[in-house]
Amino acid sequence: MSLRTLLIALLLSISLPVTAATEIVPLSNRTSADLLPVAQNFIGKDGTVSAYGNQLIVNAEPEKIQALRALLAQLDTPAKRLLITVDTNENNQQSNTHIITYSTASRDGGIQQIQASEGVPALIQVGQSVPLTTTQPDTYGRPQNQTQYRNVTQGFYVTASVTGETVHLSISTNRDRMSQERPDVVNVQSTDTTVSGRLGEWITLAGINRQTQADKQGATRTYSTQGRDDLTLRVKVESLN
């Protein structure tokens, strides 16, 4: 081959665009919904990525596809099995002065555990059905008591992901509680939060401190009450594999 012919061939190879290829990349452990955003971000404007079932269809330059395969091989690993522990510690105290004096101190709460896969929401919930009685007039105007049962629960939706020794938690909590002031009222609290911490260590989610005061006067007695609620929520995540 003459030098002139070789130069022409080199110029043609430089000027011609690289032909894009279409390949199917099967996934073994993670779902296509999990890894499709990562693949699309990696390919960017150099090609396209779509999902079909649990596999990715990639259209890009062969070198780009090979690089994507290497990246997916690091990400398409079995999801970690996690043990999620929730500790609910609640203290209630009441003290009263003046004519009537009494005090109560109780501690309720506990630890709930559940196993879950990384990235999959887990629900931990406890509760009970409580009768709520209301008074309404009947057709003749006479007061009638009606009793209905209401579920009073406290629970947590926890979604955990692990990076090295750090765990990231997306948490939605709900906490129902019978009102101390009105027995026919259920107080409802809910929160959504994202926190991070180390595997195997307690992560404090919330500390709720509430004080209430009520005064009542009657024909024969006068008294005052002061109540205090303290609620602490903690979560610990441990890897099982």
TrEMBL record:
GO terms for biological process: protein secretion. It is found in: Cell outer membrane. It holds the Pfam family Secretin. Residues 1-20 form the signal peptide. Keywords: Signal, Transport. This is Type II and III secretion system protein. Belongs to the bacterial secretin family. One of its GO terms (cellular component) is cell outer membrane. Residues 22-80 form the NolW-like domain. Its main location: membrane. Residues 113-217 form the Type II/III secretion system secretin-like domain.
